[in-house]
């Protein structure tokens, strides 16, 4: 096992091929290479998946929610708490982070946008502006920050489901193969998946195809329940109605009140 890793920046795989002995990769810029194993860990909009499994429309399901995040000034939330403002079908929040700034997150329910392009930032800014029009609290300030943002994260909240996570010596890991959406601890699951794959590769050292299948069998047991819990998580995070927001907020107050009480008593 090598004790260092080569990282290539500013390039992407362009084509993928394989035979029984390895995977062949061509790059947009670099010279073609051959690897024992090719693992796509390139996220929800995976290129590896597209090249081997086909266009993402077949595997990526938009769950009717959008998310945008951006860095904001500390003054918008000088506390150490996450501040949330719930409106029916819309959530605005500002999270404190270490250092000077904070992170604002906007999460809302919305129909598919015709012509949506996950790389078109100008379009994303318009979508946010329309979705949060008339919002209270500091929503107008947040929308203004979105308009001027140079570092806006925006995407649909989507899940990825594939019948098989590998074919021969090419496999997928993390959001590329099993995105659980925003509400399912996707980073933790991606790392757990990588750990499982490392273990199965060690166990099936001479048979990487079998290692990929063993990893999938084991790791699906973690991702499937999280994907199935989407509706409950989404209802709690972005209730669709005024009543839903009131129930969620009062429920949260009861739980935190109870926790404070029991902490004081112990
Ligand atoms: C707002 C938000 C909050 C979240 N909060 C949490 C949380 O609190 N806890 C949690 O566990 N999860 C959270 N998640 C989910 C988590 O971010 C993802 O599940 C996780 O990042 C998936 O990791 P990944 O490595 O599979 O994909 P990604 O993190 O998407 O990484 C994929 C990488 O591949 C690169 N890439 C893409 N295409 C190519 C290409 N062609 N060539 C080379 N590189 C390429 C991308 O630039 C990117 O760096 C959150 C997600 C969002 C959107």
Structure overview:
With about 270 residues, the protein is an alpha+beta fold. It folds into two domains: about 15-60 and about 160-230, FAD/NAD(P)-binding domain, CATH 3.50.50; about 60-160, 2-Layer Sandwich (D-Amino Acid Oxidase, Chain A, domain 2), CATH 3.30.9.30. Helix content is about 40%, strand content about 25%. The protein has helices at about 45-55, 120-130, 140-150, 175-180, 185-205, 210-230, 230-235, 240-265, and strands spanning about 15-20, 20-25, 35, 40, 60-75, 85, 90-95, 100-110, 155-160, 165, 170. The longest helix has 24 residues, at about 240-265. It is globular, with a radius of gyration of 22 Å. The model has no long low-confidence stretch (mean pLDDT about 95). Flavin-adenine dinucleotide (FAD) binds near residues 47, 69, 182, 185 and 186.
- Count every helix, treating DSSP H or I runs of 4 or more residues as helices: 8
Shape category: globular
Largest sheet: 5 strands, antiparallel
Identify the CATH homologous superfamily of the largest domain.
FAD/NAD(P)-binding domain
Number of strands: 11
Count of spatially separate domains: 2
């Amino acid at each position: 096992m090598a004790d260092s890793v080569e990282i290539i920046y500013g390039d992407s795989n362009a084509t993928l091929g394989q035979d029984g002995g390895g995977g062949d990769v061509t790059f947009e810029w670099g010279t073609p290479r051959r690897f024992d194993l090719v693992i796509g860990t390139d996220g929800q909009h995976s290129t590896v998946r597209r090249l081997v499994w086909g266009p993402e429309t077949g595997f990526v399901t938009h769950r009717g929610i959008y998310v945008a995040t951006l860095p904001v000034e500390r003054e918008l939330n000088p506390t150490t708490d996450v501040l949330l403002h719930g409106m029916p079908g819309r959530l605005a929040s500002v999270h404190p982070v270490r250092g000077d700034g904070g992170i604002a997150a906007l999460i809302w329910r919305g129909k598919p946008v015709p012509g949506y392009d996950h790389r078109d930032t100008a379009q994303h800014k318009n979508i946010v502006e329309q979705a949060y029009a008339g919002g209270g609290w500091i929503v107008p300030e947040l929308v203004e920050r979105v308009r001027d943002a140079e570092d806006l994260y925006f995407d649909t909240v989507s899940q990825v489901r594939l019948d098989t996570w590998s074919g021969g010596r090419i496999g997928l890991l993390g959001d590329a193969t099993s995105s659980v959406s925003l509400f399912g601890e996707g980073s933790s699951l991606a790392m757990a998946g990588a750990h499982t794959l490392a273990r199965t590769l060690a166990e099936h050292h001479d048979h990487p195809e079998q290692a990929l299948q063993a990893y999938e069998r084991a790791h699906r047991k973690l991702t499937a329940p999280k994907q199935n819990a989407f509706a409950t998580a989404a209802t709690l995070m972005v209730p669709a109605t005024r009543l839903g927001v009131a129930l969620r907020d009062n429920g949260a107050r009861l739980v935190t009140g109870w926790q404070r009480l029991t902490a004081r008593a112990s």
